[in-house]
User: Fold this.
Amino acid sequence: MRNLVIDTCVLIHIVRYTVTGKNCLDTISKLDEEPNIIISVVTKAEMESFVLQNQWGAKKIEKLEKLLENITVIDINQSDNALLSQYSQVDSFSKGKGVDKKGNKLGGSARKMGKNDLWIAATASALDISLITTDGDFDHLNQTFIDVIKVK
Assistant:
């Protein structure tokens, strides 16, 4: 069973069952027939906000809740502090002031990351597992802090 962190945008596409959502499901099933899907508690909060902002109806909310039943949610406050440490390192690295997991200095310019994306990236990094996304927010972290799998 392969562990995979999914970004908020992936969850939105899956619930909406868009073409991209179908591609995400296909990608996940090609990686592992029975993966352990993981999200950050930040993703769960973003989804709750997204539901309210977009006034989702009962059918979509029920679909989301059913999906979340089979997903592992990682809290920010892990007892071993690995997640907090990775947040600090990813944030520093993204601002062009830090180093990657291997101690290499950032070679390019700083990249602005939203705080929620920092937590999602830190979750994947602390667990040392791949992150599936549909956007480019994590591109600069690929093969430095995390393995980014981008789905179109």
